Amino acid sequence: MSVTAFVESLHEFLQKDQISENETVREQHSVDESYHKGSITQVVVFPRSTEETSQILAAASKHVIPVVPFGLGTSLEGHVVPMQECVTIDFTEMNAVLEVSPDDLIVKVQPGVTRSQLNKELKKHGLFFSVDPGADATLGGMAATNASGTTSVRYGIMRDQVRDLEVVLASGEVIHTGSKAAKSSAGLHLNGLFVGSEGILGCITELTLKVYGIPEYEMAGRATFPSVENAVQAVVSLLQSGIPIARVELLDEISLKQLNHHQKTDYPEIPTLFMEFHGNEAGLAQDVDFMKEIVSMYDCEAIEFVTNNAERNRLWEARHNLAYSFIHGYPGRKMMVTDVCVPISELAGAVRHAQEQLSELNLIGGVTGHVGDGNFHVILMIDLADEEEKARANTFNESLVAYGLERNGTSTGEHGVGYGKQKYMEQEFGAALGVMQQIKAALDPQGILNPGKLLPAKGENVYESVIKS
Amino acid sequence: MSVTAFVESLHEFLQKDQISENETVREQHSVDESYHKGSITQVVVFPRSTEETSQILAAASKHVIPVVPFGLGTSLEGHVVPMQECVTIDFTEMNAVLEVSPDDLIVKVQPGVTRSQLNKELKKHGLFFSVDPGADATLGGMAATNASGTTSVRYGIMRDQVRDLEVVLASGEVIHTGSKAAKSSAGLHLNGLFVGSEGILGCITELTLKVYGIPEYEMAGRATFPSVENAVQAVVSLLQSGIPIARVELLDEISLKQLNHHQKTDYPEIPTLFMEFHGNEAGLAQDVDFMKEIVSMYDCEAIEFVTNNAERNRLWEARHNLAYSFIHGYPGRKMMVTDVCVPISELAGAVRHAQEQLSELNLIGGVTGHVGDGNFHVILMIDLADEEEKARANTFNESLVAYGLERNGTSTGEHGVGYGKQKYMEQEFGAALGVMQQIKAALDPQGILNPGKLLPAKGENVYESVIKS
């Protein structure tokens, strides 16, 4: 392994401006939005084609240089943070929308296209892309981490939208994992395997994705409840009723307080559901009546609907700005966001547990959740200079994940594993972790693809459980 | 490899009545509903628990005996047909519904539970399981082949319903592929990998599946069109409009003729869509107006709706009996059903191509399709004693698959690969087939799991392309 020889070989097929050893560029490409820290990448490359990506991987394979793929660095568990000397591949120059097929309701894009860039293009055709993780991430990154968000309760997660990926393997070989067909029972399901594989099996160079017609009618609303339990139980009933919920977000007392303070809103500071429904006007009018009946059974204190776009956008903007409300509210502290997903029948208990732990461990934080999926986040604001507080935050995280796993949930509903959650993989998967490691070993025998992420190396399942700073 | 020693070892942990070497039993377990023929299994075992299944696999592994998992033998591409000496594991004695969780909208079942058995149980809770492949298959078999059917356009395919599988690996080791959480970004996506793996990676011993609330209101309808092109284009527009189509099936002239003749129905014998919509009454009333507007743009000749259950059931019963109408209409001939899925923009052309080829090759058959997914079947009625006719049927199949693959479709939308479609895997997947073979080799190094199915063995990609009889 010689980085110098590797970088020299890059010059054989890349232009000068596609290779950067500049310290600032390297540092910018060695962090994400999480609190995880690692080492600094040796070199950043900017491929403009699949062929160039293939050449980079082939060279990395030859010189045994670790490879970290990079979109816009919005990951939340250290996915793009180098754990050793490596090359970082920045895909933002591969950012073309290659094909929009309204008849097939699919689109073909390069990995550096962002969510908002795609939606701007799709709007011309009356279409939209459904996955909204909050950040304006690249679609390559969203596929690599199996992103999801507020609309997943209706339209599904990133994995549900992927028809085909073009992937460059460790060797430089290029494969396609699927087709343009809406469904298939042919072969092993490589689409599903590569989505969420966090760069440890290959680099995504093209995506064919499912898109949707913009709904005829959209309606948003807010419902307040005396307790988190009541709010969650109301959502369970709404889901069972078949009412077409497009989004349903829970905000707890502390989150609403933070929101009101920093967004100048005046929401009641009690457990609240932010909701959205897609359908036609007559159908939604009937649903509203039914909904009011359902939520009243769970002592809903007030329910209000808005149908005009400006009001609807204001509601979701407030929700999306929740994290920033915390960040701006606590200068000098760093956000540490957890992400557990439990069976929905366990959600109220899990949220209550989180609130109790926050109070017991004397931590600053609020709970918010995609309750339709049983997925929730706790936004903690941590003083990274305070070792003792960091230890308490770590205890909190451990306790929350353990609570979720004991109830047959998962350690991460949407943020992914990256560096931060590898230590929980053995507890979550048991013997199945061995199967994952076998697949990794078969497809990346030298272990050059994003090492130190997603899967603990064989025989190395117990990671130190401290927050690096 | 000694079958005798293997069978002897089975007696160490199974009861006598769980092991059958009876010739009739063996023969019954060596065929499916397809025209594919192989050899006769050596022994059939009937495990009653995961532990027994694990012991069977461990013994098979030790004695290097091929293993074929078996549900009710309703597969359509020879999935359960032995290709060499083997043990067949019949899972029908593992047929308990283990858990129904209405709050979580999930159910846990053993692999031998059938679709109708599950729905009978779920009805008590106001719930239903969505995947309907026609046959009353076992859920283990449906997961193994990634089944789908008429309702997939709304609720998704089998893979979309699986939250967790308990799987016994070749070694006898037991793993869980997921959790009860509605979504997860942890680990590699083993759920998706094992669904549709046709028994070549492991045997499914338990399934946790997503279920749905029975819709408030269901409405079915029929619309007739002057051509297949017009019918398909109308479906594209309906999909883009966001109208909640729960089923949309195309029947061609010949299929309707066959149906009328054998079901005593009097449907017009022109291209027809059978449709179903789920929602609330007011919403569907508004959708009907919109729908009429849309289909009229494609020269719809007549559109009729039924809302009472009896009439609705009659419509879908007719559709489900289509295959039997062909079978009963041609005694002495064997049904050979193809199954291609293309991007929907290519569907009209593909159906036209199929109709032309049927006529050119002088074959008896009709076209029917899940047009919302771009998936269609051609039901051929073949005289298996006529070698020349079999060759023409084979030419037809090859031509149809080639047409689909050239247009970025898939060789099978729902029936799976089994024995019958292995020969197309290299053409469909190219270099990605190598990745699938590497995964298979890593997880089943002795190659004992359902050999000769799904993936052509390495270096053996060109299969004889004849119909065995």
Describe the structure.
Two copies of one chain form a homodimer. Chain A has 469 residues and is of the alpha+beta class. Chain A folds into four domains: 3-90, Uridine Diphospho-n-acetylenolpyruvylglucosamine Reductase, domain 2 (2-Layer Sandwich), CATH 3.30.43; 97-213, Uridine Diphospho-n-acetylenolpyruvylglucosamine Reductase, domain 3 (2-Layer Sandwich), CATH 3.30.465; 217-324, Alpha-Beta Plaits (2-Layer Sandwich); 330-420, 2-Layer Sandwich (Alpha-Beta Plaits), CATH 3.30.70.2740. Chain A has helices at residues 3-10, 23-28, 50-63, 115-123, 139-144, 152-155, 158-161, 190-194, 228-241, 253-263, 281-296, 309-320, 322-329, 347-360, 387-406, 425-429, 432-443; strands at 19-20, 43-45, 67-70, 87-90, 97-101, 106-109, 127-128, 162-168, 174-176, 203-210, 212-213, 217-224, 245-251, 272-279, 302-306, 334-341, 364-370, 375-382. In chain A, the strands form four sheets. A seven-stranded antiparallel sheet of chain A has the order 15-12-14-13-17-18-16, with helices on both faces. In chain A, helix 1 runs antiparallel to helix 3. The two termini of chain A are 28 Å apart. At the A-B interface, strand 9, helix 8, strand 11, helix 9 and helix 11 of A face strand 9, helix 8, strand 11, helix 9 and helix 11 of B. Chains A, B: It is an enzyme of class 1 (oxidoreductase).
Give the helices and strands, then pairings.
Two copies of one chain form a homodimer.
Chain A: H1 3-10, E1 19-20, H2 23-28, E2 43-45, H3 50-63, E3 67-70, E4 87-90, E5 97-101, E6 106-109, H4 115-123, E7 127-128, H5 139-144, H6 152-155, H7 158-161, E8 162-168, E9 174-176, H8 190-194, E10 203-210, E11 212-213, E12 217-224, H9 228-241, E13 245-251, H10 253-263, E14 272-279, H11 281-296, E15 302-306, H12 309-320, H13 322-329, E16 334-341, H14 347-360, E17 364-370, E18 375-382, H15 387-406, H16 425-429, H17 432-443
Parallel strand pairs in A: 2-4, 3-4
Antiparallel strand pairs in A: 1-2, 5-6, 6-10, 7-11, 8-9, 8-10, 12-14, 12-15, 13-14, 13-17, 16-18, 17-18
